[in-house]
Write a structure and sequence with these properties.
CATH architecture of the largest domain in chain A: 3-Layer(aba) Sandwich
CATH topology of one domain in chain B: MetI-like fold
Strand order of the largest sheet of chain A: 6-7-8-3-9-10
Shape of chain A: elongated
Radius of gyration of chain A: 25 Å
Order of helices and strands of chain A: EEEHEEEHHHEHEHEEHHEEEEEEEEEE
CATH class of the largest domain in chain A: Alpha Beta
Number of strands of chain B: 0
Low-confidence stretches of chain A: none
Order of helices and strands of chain B: HHHHHHHHHHHHHH
Number of helices of chain B: 14
CATH architecture of one domain in chain B: Orthogonal Bundle
Oligomer: heterodimer
CATH topology of the largest domain in chain A: Rossmann fold
Largest interface: A-B, 25 and 22 residues
Largest sheet of chain B: none
Low-confidence stretches of chain B: none
Shape of chain B: globular
Number of domains of chain A: 2
Strand content of chain B: under 5%
Radius of gyration of chain B: 24 Å
Number of strands of chain A: 20
Distance between the termini of chain B: 22 Å
CATH superfamily of the largest domain in chain A: P-loop containing nucleotide triphosphate hydrolases
Mean pLDDT of chain A: 93
């Protein structure tokens, strides 16, 4: 079966739609990605970024305008959905309302010509797997949202697909149930060892569950990598901004000494940042640094220390956030953990403070 | 509902309901009772009934045995009227079948269009209702006539030498009835199909169902309420139709409707006409109820 180490490959895939105004919209614009066998892979991005269109092309509901889609090394770009070894968990579950839970789950097996006896056995197993045994005779309408979600999962997994596609399957659930299901899905994926391709706009969900993530925006795959990589070394401003919170400090490159780059944050000070990349003097860059990697009033030797004024203090329980403005107009948000009960606010609005960060914490972004 | 009546506003509710209720009572229920009475008495000489009324079961007997009449000849066919009834049911089934088979894809097509187009196309389906039924039927007759549109066209382009006999036969009646009743099939089926969630077809395809199987297993069962409504809305009036068989059949195609019509006209046999009307009504009612009973489970599920 596995004639390739990749479960799914998208090769330079383009999908264009004709807009109601008669224009052409590239929902997916030259996307190339390789999804490894047995991987939990997430397509992450805001609505309209092309993640759902990509998923629908892998499922076979949409055919690519250009490019190829390979499933286990086999070109399936033009293969209709019903002939692909792939199953989908739909956003609104799309359970058949006129069938029982058993008929729903057995539908795929029936299409494959699995015997009645085997069907009943495998439906039972699938229900065990999603922890809803004995639900065979219920109808979808009689189930809660969370239960319908599990039935949709069972209906897909019972077919033992080579790849399972999940289109924001937890979107309709409340927060607590969603968190539970995230862990459950992840565990289930490890158990069955099937490749999961998971579409979500929830960055936290993607970080929690995925082996690798592709961040998409405007039809492009901006960055593909493991969660740590996406979070710690975002490739673009969009990725840095979409995944977690980031401070962006615009500046100009003044010089580079080996791996140390000198950047003038015009009016706010000069910073030194480690980077393996080459920059040219005078180049416009953005220093991106996460709020939790900044400290307030505790200077770091051979790090960067900038003087600014506190504009706001927000206490949120676990942390306190400080909004600081610098003379050059730059703004940053600092996150300090409230480690002890006795800890007092490090500063109050209007205070002159020093914000510090190491030379390795930030990323220098050019786009 | 009953609870509502017991509340204060019951007077207002009765006020709203009574015009309609009164209308139905006076012009539908009461006439049926009158017909029931007439069907059990002897006919009058020049139509109407014999006075004072003479009670008899002969009108019903006549329907099941056409020879139970004083005028029956030696070569009398006792199953004549039952045969006509059977013929009507058969024509009714054929017409209903074609209305659904033609109407379903049409409804589907319309439901898939953009909102503006959907509205426009539905108006096109409804427009025929604004034209007099008789006028439309006569117009169709002109299309099918020996020197009508179709025959003239085919003769002129040399496809045929002899005109087709398209009129005054069962074919013409069936065409006329399909033509007349297609909108009644389209409207309820469109309503059902329009509500249908097409992502279910994607789900079926995703689970390995080719388009045809997905249709039979998912879409058709889910849109069955519309199909059943179409079936009833077309079958019931078609079985009792009399204008279309009269015009398109030219008196050569006898249906129960034309037979009943004749009893109140030239045959001047009101009691027999009433008896046949009631038999027709009961049989159709029983048929429809039986159908609903057998399919209600499936229908309920789909809804």
């Amino acid at each position: 079966m596995a004639s390739s180490e990749f479960a799914v490959e998208m090769q330079d895939v383009v999908k264009q739609f004709v807009t109601p105004e008669g224009g052409i919209l590239a929902a997916v614009n030259h996307v190339t990605m390789q999804i490894k066998d047995g991987e939990f892979f997430s397509l992450l991005g805001p609505s309209g970024c092309g993640k759902t269109t990509s998923l629908r092309m892998i499922a076979g509901f949409e055919l690519p305008t250009d490019g190829k889609i390979l499933i286990h090394g086999k070109d399936m770009s033009q293969t209709p959905a019903f002939q692909r070894p792939i199953n989908t968990v739909f956003q609104q579950y799309a359970l058949f309302p006129h069938m029982t839970v058993e008929q729903n789950i057995a539908f795929g097996l029936e299409m494959k010509g699995v015997s009645r006896v085997d069907r009943i056995r495998r439906v039972g197993e699938a229900l065990e797997m999603v922890r809803l045994p004995g639900m065979e005779m219920r109808r979808p309408k009689q189930l809660s949202g969370g239960q319908q979600q599990r039935i949709a999962l069972a209906r897909a997994l019972v077919n033992k697909p080579e790849v399972l596609l999940l289109d924001e399957p937890l979107g309709a659930l409340d927060l607590k149930l969603r968190k539970e299901m995230q862990l459950e899905l992840k565990t289930l994926q490890r158990e069955v060892g099937i490749t999961f391709i998971y579409v979500t706009h929830d960055q936290e969900e993607a970080l929690t569950m995925s082996d690798r993530i592709a961040v998409m925006s405007k039809g492009l795959a901006l960055q593909i990598g493991v969660p740590e990589e996406i979070y710690e070394r975002p490739a673009t401003k969009f990725v840095a901004d979409f995944i977690g919170e980031t401070n962006f400090l615009d500046g100009v490159v003044k010089g580079q000494n080996g791996t140390t780059v000198e950047i003038d944050l015009t009016g706010s000070g000069i910073v030194y940042i480690e980077s393996s990349r080459k920059f040219t003097n005078g180049q416009q860059v953005t220093v991106a640094v996460r709020p939790e990697k900044l400290t307030l009033n505790s200077e770091i030797k051979s790090g960067n220390n900038l003087k600014g004024r506190v504009e706001e203090v927000i206490y949120i329980g676990t942390d306190t956030h400080y909004g600081v403005r610098f003379p050059g107009g730059h703004k940053a948000r600092i996150r300090e953990q409230n480690v002890t009960v006795a800890q007092k606010s490090l500063a109050k609005t209007g205070d002159e403070v020093t914000m510090s960060f190491t030379r390795t914490s930030p990323r220098i972004l050019t786009e | 509902m009953l609870k509502l009546f017991r509340e204060k506003k019951s007077a207002q509710l009765w006020g709203l309901i009574s015009p309609g209720a009164l209308w139905i009572l006076l012009f539908f229920n009461l006439p049926i009772l009158i017909m029931l009475f007439i069907s059990f008495v002897e006919r009058g000489r020049a139509g109407g009934i014999k006075l004072p009324p003479v009670y008899t079961l002969n009108n019903y007997e006549l329907f099941f045995n056409s020879c139970a009449s004083d005028f029956a000849g030696v070569d009398c066919n006792p199953l004549l009227y039952l045969g006509i009834f059977g013929n009507s049911v058969r024509i009714g089934l054929v017409v209903t079948f074609w209305c659904i088979v033609v109407g379903y894809p049409l409804s589907y097509f319309i439901s898939k269009q953009k909102q503006v187009w959907r509205d426009a196309l539905m108006i096109l389906v409804i427009i025929p209702f604004w034209t007099n039924f008789l006028v439309r039927t006569y117009a169709l007759k002109q299309v099918l006539a020996t020197e009508g549109l179709i025959n003239t066209l085919f003769m002129n382009i040399g496809l045929i030498n002899q005109p087709f006999d398209l009129l005054f036969n069962e074919f013409a009646v069936v065409i006329g009835l399909i033509y007349g009743y297609l909108p009644f099939a389209v409207l309820p089926m469109y309503a059902s199909i329009e509500k249908f969630d097409h992502s279910l077809m994607e789900a079926a395809a995703d689970l390995g169902a080719p388009p045809q199987r997905a249709f039979w297993r998912v879409m058709l069962p889910m849109t069955m309420p519309g199909v059943v409504a179409a079936l009833v809305l077309v079958f019931v009036p078609v079985v009792g139709a009399f204008i279309t068989p009269d015009i398109m059949g030219g008196g050569k195609v006898e249906m129960i409707g034309t037979l009943i019509n004749r009893q109140f006209g030239v045959a001047r046999n009101w009691p027999f006409g009433s008896a046949m009307s009631l038999v027709l009504m009961s049989l159709v009612l029983i048929g429809v109820i039986a159908y609903f009973r057998s399919s209600s489970e499936e229908t309920r599920r789909a809804m």
